[in-house]
Specification:
Blueprint: E1 6-7, E2 10-11, H1 12-26, H2 31-63, H3 67-95
Antiparallel strand pairs: 1-2
Length: 96
């Protein structure tokens, strides 16, 4: 079996084709400008996300909610679901 490198569930040939189309549509001189714009947009999104996280943390701290209890409960529930899924997949894997 030949293993290919994938990026976001897209193979290397698809990525190369997309890059080729981008170069043909926008030209090589516009690509750095587009990349800068995308970088600035991603940075703005990251900053907004961090601001939102800090505001949520601040409001939780102000109200006195104990997040460790909720985190522990959610972690336990996730582990239970993982165990159930692994148990059910185990029987399916054995049948295959």
């Amino acid at each position: 079996m030949i293993l290919q490198t994938t990026f976001l569930f897209i193979g290397a040939t698809e990525v190369m084709f997309i890059l080729f189309v981008v170069v043909m549509l926008f030209g090589a001189d516009k690509i750095p400008e587009i990349a800068r714009g995308l970088g600035k947009g991603m940075r703005t999104l990251k900053d907004a996300t961090n601001d939102l996280k800090s505001e949520i943390t601040k409001s939780v701290d102000d109200t006195g909610i104990n997040t460790s209890e909720y985190t522990k409960e959610i972690t336990e529930q996730i582990q239970e679901i993982k165990d159930e899924v692994e148990d059910s997949l185990g029987s399916v894997k054995r049948k295959l």
